[in-house]
User: What shape does this take?
Amino acid sequence: MERTSPAVPAGPPDERRRATPGGEATGPLRRTRVAVVAVLGLAAVAALSVVHLVQGTSEIGAGDLLRLALGQEDTNAWNVLIASRLPRLAAGLIVGVALGVAGASLQSLVRNTLASPDTLGVNAGAHLMVTAAAAFGLSLPVLPAGGLAFLGGLGAAGFVLLLSAGGASGPARLILAGSATALALASLTMLLLLLFEEETKGLFAWGSGSLIQADLNASTQMAPVLLAGVAGLLVLGHRLDILSLGDDAASVLGVGVRRTRLMVTVLAVLLTAAAVTVAGPIGFVGLCAPAIVRLAAPLVPGILRHRVLLPLAGVAGALIVIGADVTLRTFMGGQGGVDIPTGVITSMVGAAVLVGLARRHRDSGPTRQPPAARTKAGRSRVRFWVVLGTGLAAAVGAIVAGALLGDTLLLTGDIGNWLAGVAGPKTSFVLDTRLPRVAAAVLAGVALAIAGVTVQGVCRNPLAEPGILGITAGAGVGAVTLLTLAPLAGIWLMSAAAGAGAVVAFALVYALAWRTGLNSDRLVLIGVGVSAGFAALTTFIIVATDPWNTSKALIWLSGSTYGRTFPQVLPLVIALVVLTPLVCVVRRDLDLMALDDDTPRVLGVRLERTRLIALAGSAILTSTAVSAVGVVGFVGLVAPHAARALVGGRHARVIPVAAVLGALLVSLADTIGRFVIAPAQIPAGLLTALIGTPYFVWLLWRSRA
Assistant: This one.
């Protein structure tokens, strides 16, 4: 009698492995077609490499290199080739292969096509460790630096996978966990760049992924690491094929699921760390390379088997990196290739790919109604007034502390004398410069909190906020563009530029997310992609216009009230006066939209128009806040959710409490940033990110299903 295992699906051998990270059937392996694809890919990489070698800042061209290849001596051409062009090409090839293979393995590991070293926070963790070493004066050789990058990336990846239940609970949850972790790590990195400006000079551009190399040292030392990582993953390829059937089936078939996941994670992070050590965190290559290979799956059956997928993803990664570098130097010239990081171009392309993949995903549900968002909805009226009164008292205390604390300590009597016009010159100068900063922080906190309440209500997602939906990044692009083109522009032009950027970002996210209705998870995923694209565009503007003077833009992007005056706060006041009553008017509509789409329609709410107006108002509030204090993240997440936990889910109560909490959060962050290491300062946006990220992580942890 023939014995069979009930866990193995019936049917021919070629039909037994159907599940892959993207859900495609592997089908029978067609070796000829796979070989053709591999040869075409390698030929494309070779052709681009030849083009890459003839580009650069020197006048050495194709003819000089051809004569050199034919054996004719040319010392100048040889020096340029060895000292500049070959190291840059070698770095691009190593980074592309490493990130392509790492991305494909991570996607298979979590069975999610949106996974990559970027979305799992690996790049950000590795980048932080390398920057920290430079900031504290550690000049490490290549291999020890790679070891630090490996530890940082491994810690970040493990943390994100833990928060997202291994990535299996849905793409939105994975992206939100990765984005929050990456933002916190990036905030720490930005803080080091600002506090240790001399020690970390030049690392801002490197932090976006730069292929500039002084010699072949880094590439030659990381090449064995690359080979070891790729070889290890190829050995595990058969296990990954079986793991794609599901954990239970893999266990029955003899695969150690936990051990396999651990080994794949370690090897993928090792490859990512090698790439970061060589060229910095080049974005989204690990997302795009496997996606390119999967496009060929319908024509090349069997291409998704991992011993085929992984090397082809490496070839695609090399094609992306070298192609991006060739494109950059073709359009921006040789000097542009020096000033502008290659990672900026890959991030722009990768953001578009992320948006395209996000539009294909259906709503997965787990992030839409965390327990804290739907419990304790019926708080008493007395509790509401107690919470509101306590919050107002705390906000007033924070305002007073903001006026008194800083590099110069004042007393409350000094404020009274200043109001009476009898303060001394020193006190008057301090308060004339400090009080506008306090006002900007408080009003920006109110605006961001109200915008966050509106976004969460419209999206029915308590984990959404203006920053995640790309609105903040869009406003940052508008403001930085104006700062670059017209450094002396007034606050009204600044507000208009930030508003235009925010509205463009909002319109883009809304239009891309709309598909026979507005889907919550799709809106969040597309917002993350658009936000990443606008962030890359901001970096491009900064380094393309003035690559050696990034501190001003860094301070702006970190959210700082430095140098603010009362006239600069006026547009924010006007926006609050006009738009806050509008949000209060639609508070009942927001309550109904928090239930579902059908109930508001039945009760006469014009759903799409209300959504459009509410989100447009949020975009304007966010943009004016950005124009006043720069980019401040997570206030629109923390304040509304904390308010909802304190007074219930009715927007009539959530809106005022969230506004007070937002004012309190940004005001405290600004005061602490000005006081704790005075006379140096920590931008408020970095502190709010560091405060908001743990809270966001706690929300994700509570809602892990």
User: Anything to note?
Assistant: The first helix runs from residue 31 to 53.
